[in-house]
Design goal:
single chain, 308 residues, alpha+beta, Nuclear Transport Factor 2, Chain: A, 2 domains, six-stranded mixed beta sheet, five-stranded antiparallel beta sheet, 17% helix
């Protein structure tokens, strides 16, 4: 690795300061052992190398969360290994912290690749611990499956209710779930959420794009089966409010709505179930029932809709 490239990254974080040979040998040994621990057999010991809180690929993560991510990595790629390309690394020191830059050579699933990487290391209770782990901002192929971003949906799906179905039409089972916003206040029927009241449907199948539903903070998913004869199951998303329920009918292969949202005024039309609101009524046809106000009265209107 070129010193100029490494130092450029260093300047952004610390400034290039020299490290004495004894410190350099100790830090180098720690980083080499950390790399060697990136195998399926040794990965359980990686958590000891991190501080309680870590800046992990640009996000704050606890040591436990980092270990969970490493575990998922090796579950997905049992043959994964990594090392320092040509055994070359650059170490700089500032205020008791060491910035280590190097080219990380990875091997997994028959693929080999190199990434400009860095660790920030500090000494705690006489042993080194990692404060930061990441790759250079200009790194290409950050969507590679070995990086934490690729496993975010897996962690979310592992801790939430899942809806199963064949959502891409390949004949295999997929599953979806909803990432709901964090509600910050709910006063007199007005709900506010941290970062906005939007919900996101996510899939374990990375070929399927997330679906964002604006203004939704409480929800329920339904598998509506194949409605448009494309071989893929459609998804029903209930947006649940204090006095209404709205059913969105999505084609998960492209994230588009198959019909206008079906709104039910639950203050007048109570205890309606999915079968009362929505049903398949023929090839590429659905029958929907929604609340409507006519002459000052709330009634239920039914409509047959043809799907393209």
């Amino acid at each position: 690795m070129k010193y100029f490239v490494s130092c450029l990254l260093v300047v952004l974080l610390f400034g290039c300061n020299e490290v004495n040979s004894k410190d350099e040998r100790a830090v180098r040994k720690f980083v080499e052992q950390w790399n060697e621990s990136h195998t399926q057999l040794k990965s359980a010991y990686l958590s000891r190398d991190y501080m309680d809180m870590v800046n992990y690929y640009g996000k704050q993560r606890s040591r436990v969360q980092v270990q969970q991510d490493k575990t998922l990595l090796f579950e997905q790629f049992p043959d994964y290994t990594q090392g320092i390309l040509n055994d070359e690394l650059v170490i700089t020191k500032d205020a008791g912290k060491y910035l280590v830059t190097f080219i990380k050579h990875v091997s997994y699933d028959g693929i080999e690749a190199d990434y400009e990487s860095y660790l920030t290391v500090t000494m705690k209770n006489g042993v080194f611990r990692i404060l930061r782990e990441g790759v250079a901002e200009n790194t290409k192929d950050l969507d590679a499956p070995i990086f934490p971003k690729a496993r975010e949906n897996i962690r979310i799906l592992a801790n939430t209710r899942q809806l199963f179905g064949d959502f891409d039409g390949d004949g295999l089972s997929d599953y979806a779930t909803v990432i709901s916003p964090e509600i910050s206040s709910a006063v007199n029927g007005t709900v506010e959420c941290v970062g906005g009241c939007n919900s996101v449907v996510v899939f374990n199948n990375r070929e399927l794009e997330d679906i964002v539903i604006e203004g939704a903070y409480q929800s329920q998913l339904e598998n509506l089966k194949d409605l448009n004869s494309d071989g893929a199951d459609e998804i029903g998303f209930w947006d649940i409010k204090p006095t209404s329920k709205t059913l969105y009918v999505f084609d998960p292969t492209n994230g588009k709505l198959l019909t206008e949202p079906i709104i039910i005024n639950t203050a007048f039309h109570k205890n309606l179930k999915l079968i009362d609101v929505f049903k398949k009524s023929g090839r590429n046809k659905i029958t929907v029932t929604r609340s409507a106000q006519v002459d000052g009265k709330w009634i239920l209107e039914t409509e047959v809709i043809g799907l393209d």
